[in-house]
Amino acid sequence: MEKKVNDQDKEQGYKVCECGHGVHLLQAGFDIDLHPCEQCGEHVADKDEFFRMNDGADILSK
Ligand SMILES: [Zn+2]
């Protein structure tokens, strides 16, 4: 089954997985550990960790 990725997802570089427990990384360059999602089994990053890191990077780049 093919995953639907829309333009906005591609642009932001990530997509929250189907069950909402993890984050798919759509672009290389995120320095974060991946693990199989507890709910859907996809390889995802921890959502809390990812957004914490992303917020920090955002602030630094502005
Ligand atoms: Zn999941």
SSE arrangement:
Layout: H1 7-12, E1 14-16, E2 22-25, E3 34-36, E4 43-46, H2 47-61
The chain binds zinc ion.
Quickly list its features.
34% helix; four-stranded antiparallel β-sheet; binds zinc ion; 62 residues; alpha+beta
Q: If you had to describe this structure to a student in words, what would you say it looks like?
A:
- The protein is 34% helix and 23% strand.
- The chain is of the alpha+beta class.
- It has one domain.
- A four-stranded antiparallel sheet has the order 1-2-4-3.
- The chain is globular.
- The model has no long low-confidence stretch (mean pLDDT 84).
- Zinc ion (ZN) binds next to loops.
* Poorly predicted tracts of residues: none
Binned strand content: 15-25%
How would a textbook summarize the main sheet? 4 strands, antiparallel
Q: Report the mean per-residue pLDDT as an integer.
A: 84
Q: What is the radius of gyration?
A: 12 Å
- Write down the overall geometry: globular
As for the number of domains, it is 1
Q: Care to give the gist of this entry?
A:
The protein has helices spanning 7-12, 47-61; strands spanning 14-16, 22-25, 34-36, 43-46.
